[in-house]
């Protein structure tokens, strides 16, 4: 059994086409029915404003599977500690023995989450998309654009965040990271989204931010902030206006994602699963004027896919 730390993992895993293909293969296997994926195990630690999520999946035929433990303790910054942490344990799918512990401190989760957004855009956004609107100014706001640039030639980013100073700092980081990238800070969501080809929501909001009135014909929306029962980013009008609504898994979207707004009632439109879209090799109802929306809650198959990819690179 080998133990790898974050520094070692960062040296071999980054946002690149090979990592994207590994995560996309995991989604494809899920869509083909080749994945065993139990529900998320989630536990609140209320007295410390914390929570712990455990995710796992096995892709049939793979040599390994991973179990991810992801704690979030949201008062930690007050004492100089990060709010998010975690690790992935990689097991042999033949013997059940532990092959490696990837003490990535949440790095691989950040990477696979960003890649899932890029995969959604690859299959749902117009191929000539050039302009992205980003709602939020945290880690994923940066990584989602970096990953999106793997699949679309993005040259302009429009950003809105509740904290204008954070939005300005985000814009400065993005200009420094990507030569020639135009980054505009906006004072409201409507103006940030007005000319967008792709909209990415990356917030922990507990009430809807994005509304149908913010959407132009032909836009694609990736919503990745709602990953627990209390979070929401999309107004109902966004989902009902979409020509195609896609989720990573329907079950998770109904409990943790945007579909939970219907709370056991009939959803008034068809919700496609991204793995099935990828496996079919064709995307539902996409044209110049169609609006597409993808709700990402984060799946165990993404964790197994990126952990297996990381371990192969670490042992190459």
TrEMBL record:
<dbReference type="InterPro" id="IPR003462">
    <property type="entry name" value="ODC_Mu_crystall"/>
</dbReference>
<dbReference type="InterPro" id="IPR023401">
    <property type="entry name" value="ODC_N"/>
</dbReference>
<dbReference type="GO" id="GO:0005737">
    <property type="term" value="C:cytoplasm"/>
</dbReference>
<dbReference type="Pfam" id="PF02423">
    <property type="entry name" value="OCD_Mu_crystall"/>
</dbReference>
<protein>
    <submittedName>
        <fullName>Ornithine cyclodeaminase</fullName>
    </submittedName>
</protein>
<dbReference type="InterPro" id="IPR036291">
    <property type="entry name" value="NAD(P)-bd_dom_sf"/>
</dbReference>
